[in-house]
Amino acid sequence: MNIALWFVQGLLCVAFLGSGGLKVFAYRKYLESVGGKLGLSKGLVTFIGISELAGALGIILPMATGIAPILTTLAAVGLGIIMLLATGFHLKRKEPAYATLALLILAGFVAVGRGLGQ
């Protein structure tokens, strides 16, 4: 179980580093990737990106260093909340939400696995 949790944590870290990094450091490229019209302010997109970057680091570093490992569980919960909101956003726009739902499930797996395993 520990190996599966670490694998999923790694996947989440890579996914959110990429997604958050694109939103924070390459906003124009991000806009192009979503079709040019988003309906969210640049400030909100930057905030979401920073939250994703913080979650990506939080899903790995606390458990890896052994310093306050409960933060890994909290990071997973936070990423799950972001994905829950993203799913609602995409469904409202009548867009597919498979990726956000998959990330939500993976974050929930880590939150439960790390939260109950402590």
Topology of helices and strands:
Layout: H1 2-25, H2 27-33, H3 42-58, H4 61-65, H5 70-92, H6 98-116
User: What is the succession of H and E elements?
Assistant: HHHHHH
Q: Measured on Cα atoms, how large is the radius of gyration?
A: 14 Å
| C-alpha end-to-end distance | 13 Å
Beta-strand percent range: under 5%
Mind explaining what this structure looks like?
The protein is mainly α and 118 residues long. The chain has one domain. The chain is 81% helix and 0% strand. α1 runs antiparallel to α3, α1 crosses α6 and α3 packs antiparallel against α5 (70-92). The two termini are 13 Å apart. The model has no long low-confidence stretch (mean pLDDT 92).
Task: Please name the defining characteristics of this protein.
118 residues, mainly alpha, 81% helix, globular
Brief digest:
The chain has helices at 2-25, 27-33, 42-58, 61-65, 70-92, 98-116. With 118 residues, it is mainly α.
